[in-house]
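Subject: Interface between my chains keeps coming out wrong

I've been trying for a while to get a sensible model of this assembly. When I model each chain on its own everything looks fine, but I need the whole thing in one frame so I can look at the contacts. Pasting all components below, labels as-is. Any help appreciated, I'm running out of ideas.
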Amino acid sequence: MNLAAARPELRLPGVGGIWVFVFADMTMFALMFVCFMLDRHASPALFEESRQALNRDFGGVNTLILLTSSMLVVLAIEAMKRGRPRLAPGFFALALACGCAFMVSKAFEYTGKFQAGITMLTNDFFMYYFILTGIHLVHVIAGNVVLAVLWRKSRSAPAGGSLSLYESGATYWHMVDLLWVCLFPLLYLVR
Amino acid sequence: MDEKTQILYQKISIYCGPIFVTTFVIFWAWLGHNLPPPHPDWPAQAFADRYVNHLAAIRVGFLVALITICLYLPWTGYVTARMKLIERGQFPVLSYLQLLGGGLTVMVVSISMWCWVVAAQRPERLPEITQMLTDAGWLMNDTVYMCTTLQMVAMALCVMADKKSKTPLMPGWACYLTIFCGCTFFPASLTAVLRNGPFAYDGLVGFWIPYPAWLVWEFVASYFLIVDLHRRVREERDVVEQVTAAVAQAAG
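Reply #2:
Try treating it as a single job with all components included. I did that and got this:
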């Protein structure tokens, strides 16, 4: 059987270029994760002791928030694909609300650390903690802007219009989610 | 100016890009002893020794690189003109933003090297002062990058929005790569705070990713600019030939 004929709609979602961006961005994060693991290997006691000062509840809640938000974006795209574009703005708005909730939660988490006298300069673990989660937070902020744009656009989107803009935005947002799913165990859970 | 001369200057302007990258690697990185960069946590004496031990190479390296950095200007000039072809009309704001970004990039990188030229002028001065000049040079590059980021983003956005051309100036992936390369500069701001590890000015995120990203972009963009120039010249020649043939036919 001809494979291409059996799966005629096999294609990359979104514009091709966004995948180049995603690949480059994730490579950069992967390199930073390697740096973290190497430094962790050099002083395991310090990293373990500092890790225990992190609040795993915050990390867990943030993971749930981002996973929910990713699911909402999937639902929005599915609604548009299935010819029910009126449902999409609601899903995008809820996804955006999750993105904002993540920022608020991070603000509380950082404030708690600062009040305990912990900063980026405390030790190597907290340097990585603040920088990795900080760079990720910048991605979340950018992602919220993307979701806001998609929300606005989807309100006036004609049924059956091109999905590539929406899919590109969704791809970026899933990457932000995936990065957190890597970051959370790396910083909060790995003993 | 006749057309042939114009195209010659356009070609020279584009080739200034890769020539700049090559000279930058040779004079700034290799002769200037910036590969690897000095370690920000060294004691002051180590900074002074670095200049004393490699004085001639460092002086020649940065003095030549200060001249060849200006090859970035004609390249930026060509990119601006080419972008105006896409933007058209009275408000080519992205083209102008790219022009300003490119011009200021030359100033930022020049001021950074100028700090090191000053340090190398009197290597016998107090080591703490040499250390400070070296730091100042690095932080000039690593914290004042936004002009370059804007230059790159403006170029990418302009090319991506080009719906009229049959073949765009750069393919989509190159535009997204341009934006990514511009964004790799952001974590370099941390070099102002951290003096050790991957985020310091000799670290992976402070040096080994953003500097190559800038040069790789310059190469990739230059490649597509040259391909585009050849295509444009060919298309214009075809149009002229068709018109000439049509006129000849009508006259005959």
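Reply #3:
Confirming on my end. The two ends of chain A are 49 Å apart (CA to CA).
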